[in-house]
Amino acid sequence: MNLRERQYEREKWILSPYACFSENAQNSRERIEKPCDMRTDFQRDRDRILHSKAFRRLKHKTQVFIAPEGDHYRTRLTHTLEVAQIARTIARALALNEDLTEAIALGHDLGHTPFGHAGERALADACREILPEEEITFEHNEQSVRIVEYLENNYQGLNLTKEVRDGILNHPSRYMPATLEGKVVRLSDKIAYINHDIDDALRGKIICENDLPSNLTRILGTNTKERLDTLVHDVVNNSLNQPDVYMSPDIDRAMTELRIYMFENVYVGSRAKNEEFKAKRMLRTLFEHFIVNWQELPEEYTRQVLKQDSPKRVVLDYISGMTDQYAIRKFEEIFVPGVWKE
Description:
mainly alpha, Hypothetical protein af1432
């Protein structure tokens, strides 16, 4: 019995009957591979995501604050790591498959655009308004799946298990993952971003502690540590030995109201969002330019077109994969006059 097979046996002893067992994922890749003698398939998926180019780019992509000067604001990468930490804590407490949970969490935002959800809205609007006949749409969760199924590894994809791909695709609130591990990540994503966005908004003096609704802080806690503790414990206490993952009605309602407060006071119309219209206009301009001039794309992307991919789809892949800094540099390179050098 090798190390991987020992892990299969260990899972049978320690995991909940509602967990997703690693042994059952052996044939869930689109291309069947020889098993690793040390790692389960979910562990291999986690490692592939962690070593991918798309994962590394997350360190230079906006979470909420666009191009903040401070060193301590979250980026899309630190958000992803916080989601993974919360999700692993919940999965372990519920005796679910921690490796599957971590793989989904690490991969859930690989397809996010530069400049956060402002960039996502800009590309979604551009697809709808400029390419209506192409039936091309953009959502970051779908782009995340496209990255792991196709774009990474020189257009061979990462060949992840279907359980991980399902969790990545279905992590937004309006979707429902097929596994409890995916549901854990779906909830952990909300728990993470609401709490760390409050922390960043406090740091940026967009809000102060006393601004948070007192009826919600009495239920959830008065600081980030207390709120995380309340939310994680509530998920675990309500979901333990259950065939679903959920919060109690009162805590779920309070978190929803806190999310509404954040939309009204931070995510929309605050000083933190003053530069968003510029970011959206910049991505829209880059999109319009490369739709007409796709031959100017880097060579790896023009090769993609020559492989019979739609040039417009390739342009969308290119721009959505940009980091904030790269998008700004590319815009300046194309549209800002350079200094004449003798």
